[in-house]
Design a protein that fits this description.
Shape: globular
Distance between the termini: 47 Å
Helix content: 40-55%
Structural class: alpha/beta
Largest sheet: 7 strands, mixed
CATH topology of the largest domain: Aspartate Aminotransferase, domain 2
Order of helices and strands: HHEEEHHEHEHEHEHEHEEHHHEEHEEEH
CATH class of the largest domain: Alpha Beta
Strand content: 15-25%
Strand order of the largest sheet: 4-10-9-8-7-5-6
Length: 423
């Protein structure tokens, strides 16, 4: 056995992601190549296409004509890719975008990095240092776990609590009351269910017990925002969960991603000016990571302009499509894990093999979703995650619901046959 085979065999024995590795050959919805796109339709080869319900380009800016306009002026000014890590130098477009983001978020300061993942693995260890304590939401994104593990390996401590379990969280804060570096790690919008964290209650607990709240709002930023109402259920401006709850940034580290709603490779931290300076000095990605490509910074700039012009119109359409989808799926009898009407819709299947089989059926009928078997989710909670964008159409929603009606019939027939064989 050669070294590669030995490494793979050993990893498969000890790592839960070995299940994902094994599914690569079984799942038609994994590891696709998009040969051509037409709106939200993806051609996987010359004879087969799927409607994309796995995209996180929530506002549809990846297909907006203004977003796709010429960005050569910025590239001519700054080059294709900035030449330095940010600690050395930053092109002026960075500072302009950070100012515009701070204004949109109503935050004292922002700091741009390439990805949310880099922020988590760099900023979380910087915040807690060698002796701090992290209080981690078990439903938080995997990148929070990755950042927390790096911090723990450097000497910090880690405890966890169930999603929105305020009683356990407060008990943990009391237990560690003498630790001056307490950081609560949560999602803003949960990436599997689309539900919103109880941010005001968590922030109140943090203030009461002298802790910071680190919010990963990679999905919420660009969709939810200030002043939610019957007319604007997601709120206005898309300026994130902090403003959705009408909070300020006292004792909050707010992390947003631009690769979803803004269709651009960039992410940012919003915080106080003092914390911005701290992150520059102590967060390793500020000097050990490459910068964002100029094209991504330029499209982010265009996206912010489009958001000012018609972002709320996109969000209104997105909300209507989401309601249509959730109501249609529930009418078919599916268990949909979504209480917030956010455009992440998790359809519970509840069995790994059924999830694989129905995923392949969806693919064959022309539907692309994010398939979520174990170990991506807990056993018994397997299913399909549907994400909607403002670039989807009502006709595409009808086709999605037709495909899920076929799934319903397929599962009913399968279990009827199993029952008859058992009898």
């Amino acid at each position: 056995m050669n070294t590669e085979d030995l490494l793979i065999k050993t990893n498969k024995k000890e790592h839960r992601r070995s299940h994902i590795h094994d599914m690569l050959g079984k799942m038609k919805q994994y590891d696709l190549t998009a040969h051509k796109i037409e709106g939200r339709r993806i051609w996987t080869d010359t004879s087969h296409s799927v409607i994309d319900f796995a995209s996180c380009n929530y506002l549809g800016l990846d297909l907006d004509e203004e977003m796709n306009a010429d960005i050569s002026d910025e590239i001519s000014k700054w080059g294709v890719h900035p030449s330095w890590c940010r600690l050395v130098a930053s092109p002026g477009i960075y500072l302009d975008l950070e100012s515009r983001l701070a204004s949109l978020l109503e935050a004292p300061a922002t700091l741009i990095f390439p990805t949310v993942t880099l922020i988590s693995i760099g900023v979380i260890p910087a915040l807690v240092g060698k002796g701090g304590i992290m209080l981690l939401d078990k439903s938080g994104h995997e990148t929070l776990y990755e950042g927390a593990k790096i911090a723990r390996d450097s000497g910090a401590s880690l405890v966890s609590f169930e999603q929105n379990d305020l009683k356990t969280l407060e008990s943990q804060l009391i237990q560690h009351k003498d630790n001056p570096r307490k950081v609560i790690l949560i999602d803003g919008v949960y990436s599997m269910s689309g539900d919103l964290a109880l941010v005001p209650d968590i922030v109140d607990l943090a203030k009461k017990h002298n802790a910071l709240v680190y919010i990963d709002d990679a999905h919420g930023f660009g969709v939810i925002g200030e002043s939610p109402s019957d007319d604007y259920p997601y709120g206005k401006k898309g300026n994130g969960i902090v403003r959705y709850y009408n909070l300020n940034y006292d004792n909050i580290i707010y992390v947003g991603g631009c690769s979803k709603a803004y269709s651009s490779l960039a992410a940012f931290v919003a915080c106080s000016k003092k914390m911005q300076d701290f992150i520059k000095g102590f967060s390793t990605p500020y000097d050990l990571s490459g910068p964002c490509p100029t094209a991504s910074l330029a499209t982010l700039s265009k996206g912010l302009t489009i958001n000012e012009k018609r972002g709320d119109n996109y969000r209104h359409k997105l909300y209507q499509l989401t309601r249509m989808t959730i109501n249609g799926l529930r009418a078919l009898g599916f268990d949909v894990l979504n209480k917030s009407w956010f455009p992440i819709i998790f359809v519970l299947i509840g069995d790994n093999q059924d999830t694989i089989e129905t995923a392949n059926l969806l693919f064959d009928t022309g539907i692309l979703v994010t398939v979520s078997p174990y170990p991506m989710v807990k056993p018994g909670e397997e299913g399909h995650r549907i994400t909607l964008t403002a670039a989807n159409t009502e006709d595409e929603i009808h086709k999605l619901l037709e495909a899920f009606s076929q799934i319903k019939a397929y599962l009913a027939d399968k279990y009827e046959q199993e029952d008859s064989h058992a009898g």
